[in-house]
Structure formats: structure tokens, C-alpha cells
Amino acid sequence: xxAALLANALYSVGFVLEKRALTSLPQVTVRQPVRLLGLVLRxxxxxxxxxxxASGFAAQLAVYRTLPIAAAQGIFVSGLVLxxxxxARLLGEETTGxxxxxxxxxxxxxxxxxxxxxxxxxxxxxxxxxxxVLLVCVPSLAAGVWLYNAAERRSRHRHRAPTTGVEYxxxxxxxxxxxxxxxxxxxxxxxxxxxxxxxxELLRSPYPYLLLFTGAFGLVMSQAALQRCRASxxxxxxxxxxxxxxxxxGTLSFGEALPQDPLRLALRLAGIALAVAVLLSMPKHxxxxxxxxxxxxxxxP
Length: 301
Prior knowledge:
The protein is built from 13 helices and no strands.
């Protein structure tokens, strides 16, 4: 529990620091990844944010060794409250009433998932069949990259309303969902007694290579999306997708059984359904900035 709360704080601080650093940089794009990396690596503030995120991943390893996947996601998503507070304080971002209600509903949904857990009744699996992991992860990676490219194409259309970043958040969330499953797999290989044997066994698994792919593509995609969109919206969407993806597909892949008690099963399924419904109902576009009345009156026809 302590490691999960620490990961929450590190993730929130890391995203906010990266967003603040990106606002002072020239526009970045996924089409120029080398230029993007060159720009962000010269920013001490961005480096501090990335170190915070990396520390959050390390804390996540400890969480997955002791908590069921669904329980871990329920705790991780609670960090959205801290993120929204930091975004408002440090970035000056304002959320709409509809988005605040949606965030509250998401927290309620994940609280249902946590309440569906019972100590001693939920197993913590340590392994999953590699073919099953690849069958789940590879299509998800392809879907995430395709959705991001589709959002990029639509954003370049003239006269298109400003995007809130929901599509970007879903795309990056799919990649981070795969990354979360890979972290769970890595944690299972760190339980052995011999370090050398554990490393050899880990290199024979797909997990380090999934982490490399999601780390490289997720870094470039998330930074470009963060620069264009509000962190207070894109990160909650990304986190929700990641948590739902990991809770559902991770539970199935690693063989962690669903609750047998009807009430606990209903809570878990209802929480997942509510979070998905809220995500689908979130606004896709920001309101276009309005020209001041005085400026319009002074502008000649």
C-alpha cells in the first residue's frame, strides 16, 4: 500500500513537471523523434519529471509482487486527485464542471473495484503463458499507434475544434497498459533467489522487449500529446485506460480469478462498466477561444 501511494505521488509530480517544461519548448512532433529528444533532454525540469516517473515505475514493481492486479489499479487511479490539484496550482489549468464530475465518477468506479477485494481471498499470480501475453499485447500496441496517428491526422484538419486530448490519452493509455503488464511480468522474475538466473530467465521472456517498445514509443507520443493538451484531462484519461486495461486483461492473462461472492463480483464488474461509460462520455473538444468583445467592436468589416 505504501509503495502504491508513493508511486501515485511520483507519477503526478512527474507528469506535471514534464508538462511545465514542455510549455516553454518549441512545438514537438512524433514525426521528428530525434529533435524531440534533443529538446527535452536539454531541459533540467523535464529531466526531473522523467526521473520521478522512472521512480514511480520502480515502486510499481514492489506493488505487483504483493497485491492483486485489480487492487493495485484501484489504488493507482486515486492519484488522479493529486494530479488535478497540482495541475491547477502549478500549471494554471482549469477543469470544467463536466470533467470534475467525470473524475469523481471514475474514482467511485475504481473504489468499487477495491471494495470487491477481500484479504486472503484474492490470489496474487506470478506468471502468465508467454503466447497469451503476446496475443494480448501486440494487437493493443498496434491499436494504440493507429489511434494516435488517426488523432494526429484529424487535428491537422483546418477549422477543426480544439481537441481535449481524449483520443491521445486513450492511445497512450493502451501503450502504458501493455507496459504495466510487462512490469507485472518483470516483478514475477525478481522473486527468484539467484540474481544471475533471474536475469537470464527474464531475457528469455517477452517482458523486457515490451518495455523497450512501450518506453520508446510511449515517451515520444506522450510528450507531443502533453504539449498540445491539458495535463488535467489527458493524464486522467490515460490513467483510466491503463488501469482498466491492466485490471481486466492482466487479471485474465495472469490467471487471477474473479470473486466468487456475488456481491463482490457485482461491485467489480459495475466499477469497470462505470469507468468505461464515463470515459466514452467525456468531451472530445475544448471550446474555441472567444475573441474579446472590445476587439470585435474595433475590428473593421
